[in-house]
Write a structure and sequence with these properties.
Blueprint lengths: L19 E2 L30 H19 L2 H18 L1 H14 L5 H29 L4 H4 E5 L1 H9 L3 E5 L8 H8 L4 E5 L5 H13 L2 E5 L3 H10 L3 E5 L9 E5 L2 E5 L1 H10 L3 E8 L5 H4 L2 E9 L9 H18 L21
Parallel strand pairs: 2-10, 3-6, 3-9, 4-5, 4-6
Antiparallel strand pairs: 1-2, 7-8, 9-10
């Protein structure tokens, strides 16, 4: 993607020259946690949603993903583009949200460029769904270097070497569903992740099986306040997706120059745990179809240490986190999930 789309003078768009190529020749993607789990957590599920309808929905989802993956490359890409075109045309709410989000993130983008990124966002969503279904069978058991290019900030390398507990912060950019095997193979173990079980218990159980097969145990967001501090104190790492819009009691902090709702409980958790915040993204490699090569780029871009946040309030913590997430999102704008309404419910810019 041409560099002209991002203002090189903007702090959030500045290239990170401090990253170093990580030599991953000897690591193997084992796909399991061989060291045990220091903290036991409740199963990641929601038994309220397990009717016959939910079972049929689960089978349909798995069948669609598996069927699309089995198609030859050109046919599979045709399906991706066709479904994405339907979504862009008929889901006006998410398409409009993407236009607003892109406009805030890339204010200098032309209308044509905005539309191109909206279209790419829909296509990328389809590809993420297929990668999440196939990453296990194509990556596990292989050398890390066969499937991941790793670029790491020296501070992140130090956190990894010291085997200290950390919070692994990322967002809905690139192929976040493909990051787990690479993160665990690098040695960020044991690793947990905070999530909310979907409203389909069969899907939730499949996600739990998949994640544990990749070496990650899921923590329900409803039990995170108790489980996460215990896990980090025991030397574990905990993954968090931090670019979503919370639905309840948000705090308002700037995101791409606009007021945006941010998760209040996440800010409280960050201050309570007092662990390094390791920011990373997992991306498809430009010009390379991940559904053919199953190759990805892992970038560990920044570490914010607990002392860097000392004395800061929830809004200031959220602002620091948002600044790093902006950098991750702008690394590959064509691989960002722009479709969620990031600014809904927040004050308009300039409002009192």
């Amino acid at each position: 993607m041409a560099d002209s789309r991002v203002d090189p003078s903007a702090p959030t768009a500045a290239p990170d020259d401090a990253l170093q190529r990580y030599d991953a020749r000897d690591e193997t993607v084992i796909g399991s946690n061989i060291g045990g789990w220091p903290v036991e957590v409740e199963p990641f599920r929601d038994e309220r949603f397990r009717s016959l309808y939910h079972r049929l929905q689960y089978w349909a989802l798995r069948g669609a993903q598996g069927g699309a993956l089995a198609l030859p490359g050109p046919l599979r890409e045709g399906v991706v583009r066709g479904v994405a075109a339907l979504g862009k045309t008929f889901d006006a709410r998410h398409t409009g949200a993407a236009r607003r989000f892109i406009g805030a993130a890339l204010p200098g983008a032309s209308p044509g460029e905005v539309e191109r990124l909206v279209k790419e966002s829909w296509r990328h969503l389809m590809r993420v769904a297929l990668v999440s279904e196939g990453v296990d069978r194509h990556v596990k058991g292989h050398r890390l270097a066969d499937h991941y290019e790793v670029h790491m900030h020296p501070d992140a390398a130090r956190v990894l070497e010291e085997r200290r507990g950390s919070l692994l912060i990322t967002g809905h950019m690139g192929h976040w569903e493909a990051s787990c095997p690479g993160v665990t193979a690098l040695g960020f173990t044991p690793v947990y992740a905070i999530g909310k079980a979907p409203r389909n218990d069969f899907v939730a159980q499949q996600i739990q099986r998949m994640r544990e097969g990749q070496g990650m145990r899921l923590i329900s967001r409803y039990g995170a306040m108790q489980a996460v501090p215990q896990a980090v104190r025991a030397g574990a790492n905990v993954g968090m997706l931090m670019d979503h819009r919370p639905r309840q009691k948000p705090i308002i902090a700037p995101f791409f120059g606009r007021p945006a709702g941010c998760d209040r409980s996440a800010g409280v958790l960050i201050r309570r745990v007092r662990a390094p915040l390791v920011f990373y993204g997992c991306y498809g490699i430009p010009g390379d179809d991940p559904l053919k090569s199953w190759r990805f780029e892992l970038r560990f871009t920044r570490v914010i240490f607990p002392e860097d946040l000392a004395g800061l309030g929830p809004v200031e913590v959220a602002t620091r986190v948002n600044q790093e997430l902006e950098r991750l999102l702008l690394h590959r704008p064509e691989q960002v999930f722009w479709l969620h309404d990031r600014f809904k419910g927040a004050p308009e810019p300039g409002a009192d």
